């Protein structure tokens, strides 16, 4: 674990992995923050920069060190956690939506650059999932039933379901998936 806003910490984490295990086969880049809830023109520049730094630049910093480590071995798989907010608009969350759209674009670009060198990269796009980030929304007054009612499956996802999807993307069962943004969202992006 490291602060993805700090390139030296990311480099150190990958170096530690290489020293400890001799290789890096799999990586899931899941660091993320939600940021403030404001309309685009009202969004504070410092919050914009923080959200983009963690959610998008943090993924780039991570891949910047993960890819060479994987190329030094026998290749590997990277899963970048984006969001359904990367597949559609997300009113009052402009930085979050922009960062997650960026993660998908970065994923697709890197996937095309490195697949022939043995590094397979995809994105995972969870919908509303009961995580600490969503719990903070509940603590701020959003009713769980109101959020679940927005989901065609009529419930929130679980962290386990998202983790299982990440495992699938890391497995040989998804070996022909390259640069894909996999929605795991109870049907939100289908409408």
Features of this protein?
Rossmann fold; alpha/beta; 191 residues; 4 strands
> Which percent bin holds the helix content?
40-55%
Mean pLDDT: 96
How many helices does DSSP assign?
6
CATH class: Alpha Beta
Structural category = alpha/beta
Q: Please provide the ordered H/E string of secondary-structure elements.
A: HEHEHEHHHE
Report the CATH superfamily. Answer: NAD(P)-binding Rossmann-like Domain
- Radius of gyration using CA atoms only: 17 Å
User: How many discrete domains?
Assistant: 1
- What's the count of strands? 4
Bin the strand percentage: 5-15%
CATH architecture identity: 3-Layer(aba) Sandwich
Mass-distribution shape: globular
Q: Within the largest sheet, what's the order of strands? A: 1-2-3-4
Distance N to C terminus: 36 Å
Reported by name, the CATH topology is Rossmann fold
Q: Describe the largest sheet.
A: 4 strands, parallel
Low-confidence parts? none
Polypeptide structure, described:
There is one protein chain. With about 190 residues, the chain is an alpha/beta fold. It has one domain (about 5-190): NAD(P)-binding Rossmann-like Domain (Rossmann fold, 3-Layer(aba) Sandwich). It has helices at about 5-20, 45-70, 95-115, 130-140, 145-150, 160-170; strands spanning about 25-30, 75-80, 120-125, 180-185. A four-stranded parallel beta sheet has the order 1-2-3-4, sandwiched between helices. The longest helix is centred in the N-terminal third of the chain and has 28 residues, at about 45-70. It is globular and about 50 Å long. It starts with 6 loop residues before the first helix and ends in a 7-residue tail after the last strand. The relative contact order is 0.14.
């Amino acid at each position: 674990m490291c602060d993805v806003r700090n390139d030296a910490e990311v480099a150190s984490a990958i170096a530690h992995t290489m020293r400890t295990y001799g290789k890096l086969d799999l990586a899931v880049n899941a660091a993320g923050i939600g940021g403030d809830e404001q309309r685009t023109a009202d969004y504070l520049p410092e919050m914009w920069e923080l959200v983009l730094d963690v959610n998008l630049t943090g993924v780039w910093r991570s891949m910047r060190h993960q890819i060479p480590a994987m190329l030094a071995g026998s290749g590997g798989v990277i899963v970048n956690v984006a969001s359904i907010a990367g597949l559609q608009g997300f009113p009052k969350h402009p930085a979050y939506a922009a960062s997650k759209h960026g993660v998908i674009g970065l994923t697709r670009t890197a996937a095309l650059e490195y697949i022939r060198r043995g590094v397979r990269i995809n994105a995972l796009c969870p919908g509303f999932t009961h995580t600490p980030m969503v719990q903070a929304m509940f603590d701020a007054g959003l009713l769980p039933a109101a959020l679940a009612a927005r989901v065609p499956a009529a419930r929130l996802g679980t962290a386990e379901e998202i983790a299982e999807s990440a495992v699938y993307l890391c497995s040989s069962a998804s070996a022909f998936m390259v640069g894909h943004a996999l929605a795991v969202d109870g049907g939100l992006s289908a409408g």
